[in-house]
Each structure stands twice: as structure tokens, then as C-alpha cells.
Design a protein that fits this description.
By secondary structure, this protein is an alpha/beta fold. Helices cover about 40% and strands about 15% of the residues. Strands 1-2-3-4-5-6-7-8 form an 8-stranded parallel barrel, surrounded by 6 helices. α9 links the parallel β7 and β8. The model has no long low-confidence stretch (mean pLDDT about 95). Bound molecules: 2-phosphoglycolic acid (PGA). The site of 2-phosphoglycolic acid has 13 residues, from β8.
């Protein structure tokens, strides 16, 4: 499967930074055979989408559960995100689960709102360090898959991102064996409920960087990466994009 290399800027950036990084990706150039996505903060979607041309896609990092316009101060709907030129939206990132108490049910509502608006939802799952230490990582991920993937999901409108919480922004990466075991487990769980599960992309996220990208992206059932810190540096992000193109 063609790899998807997705940057997640989190709450980083500015107009100048957007011009520098998105312009840099467009001029890099991006090799063929890989899909590139950058998920920027809401205010930079319009600018990013205008610059992205056909070279990369722009995404958001969250959306509202509410589909229709209304009295929801501070909320941004999936439809607005699409209207601004984004094609993807991340839902259920562990930082949203942790700092905003988002449950699997809320994440499923957000993903289905994204689908209704014609966006591709990147649904994040992953266990915490204590859950892994207790040997519960598969139970946790199975529970998240059961609860956070809405009935509207298919391989065209949904991407799964496996991000072990303890590997995010810590420099610690899951071992190749752990990633292989979890990705094949996720594939199996998807098979149990989706007709086109073989075609659904499963990304790995958590301290992916140029030094480990080729190894992680070569693992069976790793169909791309969700990259935080390293997506803020053009050279690092492009090195990961090139690794994705070579392995595809
Ligand atoms: P990281 O973040 O690459 O900085 O670990 C990944 C993510 O949170 O999506």
C-alpha cells in the first residue's frame, strides 16, 4: 500500500512558519509513490491549502461533534474545515483524550461528523505506559477500536493511527516487534467489522524521526506515520517522506 506520511504540528506555527514549511515541501520536491499530509492549527488551514497545490494535503487536528452551525462557542465544524481546503482531520489524539477528557464515544461522533463533511478521519488509538506495563495494551486498543470507529467508516474515509502514549514526544519508540504485533492485531480487529479492512491505512506515531523511519515503515501493516516533533523541521520531515517513498 502507498504510504501516508502525515505531520501533526500540534499547537505550533505561525503564518511565516506555514509559508516556510509548506512552501519547502512543495519545492522539495516530493518523490512519487507517497502521500504527504500536514495537519496544521485551524488558523493556518486556508494558507496551507492555498500553497499545497497537488503536492500534499492539509488537515486539521480536531473537529466538533456538532454538524450544523449553531450556538457552540469556540467550536469548529468538520464542514468548516473542509470549506477551508483541508481533506483530513485527526480525531481522538491522546492529547485530546488526556487534556479534554475525550471518550471513545465522542471520538466516534467526531469521526462520523468528519465523514459527513467529506473529510478523511484519522482516528488515533494507543495505550499508556502503565497499561502496557500491566500487559493490557491489546485490550485497550481493542476497546478504543470498538468504541471510536463509527459505522460510517471505510478504507476510503478513515485512517487509523496507532500511537503508544509513552512514545509520543518522549524520544522513546516502540520496538519493531511491538509495532509489528500491534499493527497486525489492529488489522485483525478491523477485519472483524469492516469489509474493506485490508485497504485501511494504519499509521504508526510516536517519536518517528529520520533515523528510525525506514525501519518502522518497513514493518508489515505499517502504512505510514503520524509525525509530531520531526514534522516541525523541514529536513527531518522530508527525510521521512523519502523513506516512505522508497519503501512503498
Ligand atoms: P511525536 O508526536 O512524533 O512528537 O512523538 C506524534 C504525535 O503525537 O502524533
Amino acid at each position: 500500500m502507498r504510504k501516508l506520511i502525515a505531520g501533526n504540528w500540534k499547537m505550533n506555527g505561525s503564518k511565516g512558519f506555514t509559508a516556510e514549511i509548506i512552501g519547502g515541501i512543495v519545492n522539495a520536491p516530493v518523490p512519487r509513490g507517497v502521500d504527504v499530509l500536514v495537519c496544521v492549527p485551524f488558523p493556518y488551514i486556508v494558507q496551507g491549502a492555498a500553497m499545497a497545490k497537488d503536492v500534499l494535503s492539509i488537515g486539521a487536528q480536531d473537529c466538533s461533534v456538532h454538524r450544523e452551525n449553531g450556538a457552540y462557542t469556540g467550536e469548529v465544524s468538520a464542514r468548516m474545515i473542509g470549506d477551508c481546503g483541508a481533506r483530513y482531520v485527526i480525531v481522538g489524539h491522546s492529547e485530546r483524550r488526556q487534556y479534554h477528557s475525550e471518550s471513545d464515544a465522542v471520538i466516534a461522533q467526531k469521526a462520523s461528523a468528519a465523514h459527513e463533511a467529506g473529510l478523511i478521519a484519522i482516528i488515533c488509538v494507543g495505550e499508556s505506559e502503565s497499561e502496557r506495563e500491566a500487559g493490557h495494551e491489546k485490550d485497550i486498543v481493542a476497546q478504543q477500536i470498538a468504541g471510536a470507529i463509527p459505522a460510517s467508516a471505510n478504507a476510503q474515509n478513515t485512517v487509523i493511527a496507532y500511537e503508544p502514549v509513552w512514545a509520543i514526544g518522549t524520544g522513546k519508540t516502540a520496538s519493531a516487534d511491538d509495532v509489528a504485533v500491534m499493527h497486525s492485531f489492529i488489522r485483525q480487529k478491523l477485519q472483524e467489522r469492516l469489509a474493506d479492512s485490508q485497504k485501511m491505512r494504519i499509521l504508526y506515531g510516536g517519536s518517528m524521526k529520520p533515523e528510525n523511519a525506514a525501519q518502522l515503515l518497513s514493518i508489515r501493516d505499517v502504512d505510514g506515520g503520524l509525525i509530531g516533533g520531526a514534522s516541525l523541521k523541514l529536513q527531518d520531515f522530508m527525510a521521512i517522506v523519502r523513506a516512505g517513498a522508497e519503501i512503498a
